[in-house]
Amino acid sequence: MNNFEFYNPTRIVFGEGKIVELNRLIPKEAKVLILFGGESARKTGTLDEVEKALGHRQIGLFGGIEANPRYETLIKAVEQIKQEGYDYLLAVGGGSVIDGTKFVAAAVNFEGDSWDILTSGGAKVTSALPFGTVLTLPATGSEMNKGSVITREATQSKRAFMHDSVYPQFSILDPVKTFTLPPRQISNGVVDAFVHVMEQYLTYPANAPVQDVFAEGLLKTLIDIGPKALATPHDYDIRASLMWTATLALNGLIGVGVPQDWSTHMLGHELTALYGLDHAQTLAIVLPSMLIEKLPQKQAKLAQYAEQVWGVHDGSDKQKALQAIELTREFFERMQVKTRLSDYNLGQDVIEPLIESLTKNGMTALGEHHDITPEISRRVYVASL
Ligand code: NZQ
Ligand code: ZN
């Protein structure tokens, strides 16, 4: 096992009806800006519930944070905070609203061009406004991690940053809030959480058995409950399991002391930035091809994955590995997420722009061995056609 430091200060308040706890969780004297997405928070009544729970506090609203949140939108929230003087932020939504809120929290006191927060990967961040979240979509783990992914429309760049100061102080996870999600978002959430586990698990053996078993447990749970979450949308226990599994998939716990990959995410971000695919759609396309491309380096872990997650025990390690990759693709398709670029009418002509953008964004040495060059990324994209 590699050396590591683990820190996660986010308080999780889990269960039906827990939004009322906002009154206890946010300081009484705070002036709170509530950030949310399009129409869902208002339509579902969640926004009303949140405002009611905040009682007599001074509040303001900032709506319109889009899926794959845009820098251009978020800097307007930064301006509003500077003008109106909020000292606490509350994100109400999915990963996009939470990621956007993290950026806003870090940008308010940032000296200089706030896009540098992204280009420096967070290294230039010094402080952030405190904030909490009310999660309405189980998928990203953003509710309990220090990562944020922001898109700059003007340059079609989708970049991530991390900083300890943008862990949410608390996140309220009420599974009932997921009942209104359209099937597409449930499908996306299951696939995103699944790939988060894979990025931290499917590398090479690192003498970290407890991380492995945690990861395998999360994957098996997603395989079991994913289709059920689609089939029975109002099953509280299924939604509760999905919500907590997605949080555990990317709250840092399973990634400590082990090598991590993240190349599928980086290739996927380019597909979203250039062609607008949903985050999870990009992952379902890239992951199977990436695993085949990296089969020699990943074979030992793929064989373990085949045995422990899929119950495949026959054949050579290579045969088991290949079968597990195929089963992974079938699982994504069963979750109604397509696994080929051609499913989105994207053909050979998209490959070079994707490679150019990856290179421009400095994504030239990806994966756990930092050996995925643009040339190899090109092969992965081509294999995904
Ligand atoms: O905008 P509204 O109207 O609110 O609708 C949203 C949005 O269109 C809707 N929605 C959310 N909760 C709902 C609901 N509709 C009905 N009922 C509800 N309860 O769902 C749509 C998608 O929301 P979004 O927040 O974009 O989805 P998700 O949570 O999947 O977040 C995706 C973003 O997170 C980033 C992705 O890159 C992408 O930008 N990621 C963040 C990570 C992190 N911070 O650690 C890691 C991930 O790998 C990922 O990159
Ligand atoms: Zn993801």
Automatic annotation (TrEMBL):
What keywords are annotated for this sequence in UniProt?
Oxidoreductase
Q: Report if keyword Oxidoreductase is assigned.
A: yes
Q: Where is the Fe-containing alcohol dehydrogenase-like C-terminal domain?
A: 189-356
Q: Pfam families per the record?
A: ADH_Fe_C, Fe-ADH
Record-linked PROSITE patterns: ADH_IRON_2
**Cellular component GO terms, alphabetically?**
cytosol
Q: Which residues form the Alcohol dehydrogenase iron-type/glycerol dehydrogenase GldA domain?
A: 9-175
Q: Which InterPro entries match?
A: ADH_Fe/GldA (IPR001670), ADH_Fe_C (IPR056798), ADH_Fe_CS (IPR018211), BDH-like (IPR044731)
Q: Which cofactor does it need?
A: Fe cation
GO molecular function annotation: alcohol dehydrogenase (NADP+) activity; butanol dehydrogenase (NAD+) activity; metal ion binding; methylglyoxal reductase (NADPH) (acetol producing) activity
Similarity comment: family membership = Belongs to the iron-containing alcohol dehydrogenase family.
For this entry, the protein name equals Aldehyde reductase
